[in-house]
Each structure stands twice: as C-alpha cells, then as structure tokens.
Amino acid sequence: MQSRRSEPPACIETEDPKPMPPEPSTFSHFNPHAMQDDLMDSPQVVRSVLTQFLKWEGRITSELRAAKAAGDIERLGRAAHTLHGTLAQLHAIGGTTLAAKLELGCTRQKTIPTDVHADLLTELESVTREVASYLNTPQPA
C-alpha cells in the first residue's frame, strides 16, 4: 500500500510569519518602540518601566562610582551585570554593549577598564536624558 503525503491546501501558509521589526526610534540611546513590542504592545507598561528606571538610575550610578573608587572589582562587576540587563530591556544598545564590556573586564580579566567605566557613565547619562524626554512627551490619545 502506498502512503499518501498530505499536502496543505495552497491557501494555508505552512511557515510562521516573520515578526515585523519595531519601527525606528527617534531616540538614539534607547528604543521605546522595541520596548513596546516586548511589553504586550502597551504604552502604559513602557512608561511604567521607564519611570522605574529613572527612579533607580541614580542608585546604580552611585554604585558604579563607589565600586570603582573602592577598587572593588567584584562589586563593580555585579553592578555592571545588573545595568547590562536593565539597559537591554530598554533596547539601549550602546549602553548594553558598554555594560557588558565592563562586566567582562571585571569578571574575566579581574581589572577595572577605566575608559569603559567612564564611557558607560556618559552613555547612562544620555539614556537617562532621553528617557526623561520621552516621559515628558504627551502620549497620543
């Protein structure tokens, strides 16, 4: 007996459609559109996450500075790791990359890459400014 391969009807797609990429952001240090795609397409959730980020950012900045000043490589690596994950959620590509470099320098090479630390603090300031600007912009109804 011959087996018959069943073919799906021509009108049925057999592959999962590729998701649409998020629309480009007008911000250069983070991407709220990509965040919204990650967060149930909810602008309210994006605003809530960004509001919490602004409340938290001063603490992580202080932690990064204090750990470096104390020469505490493990503490600095932990702070960089935390920041790395947070900036990834914000689709802050530049900051995510710098935080990852700092984290790796601390954990693998057991050194504090001073230039990366300084660049990360500068980038974090830029992300924070853009997040504040985004939150101060009225949302369309």
Q: What structural keywords apply?
A:
141 residues; mainly alpha; Four Helix Bundle (Hemerythrin (Met), subunit A); 0% strand
Give a written overview of the molecule:
It is built from 5 helices and no strands. With 141 residues, the chain is mainly alpha-helical. The chain has a domain of 95 residues: Four Helix Bundle (Hemerythrin (Met), subunit A), CATH 1.20.120. It starts with 31 loop residues before the first helix and ends in a 6-residue tail after the last helix. The model has no long low-confidence stretch (mean pLDDT 88).
DSSP, total strands = 0
- H and E string: HHHHH
Low-pLDDT residue intervals, each spanning 5 or more residues = none
The CATH class of the domain at 41-135 is Mainly Alpha
CATH architecture of the domain at 41-135: Up-down Bundle
List the helices and strands and how they pair.
Blueprint: H1 32-38, H2 43-70, H3 73-89, H4 93-107, H5 114-135
Question: Gist?
Answer:
This protein is mainly alpha-helical.
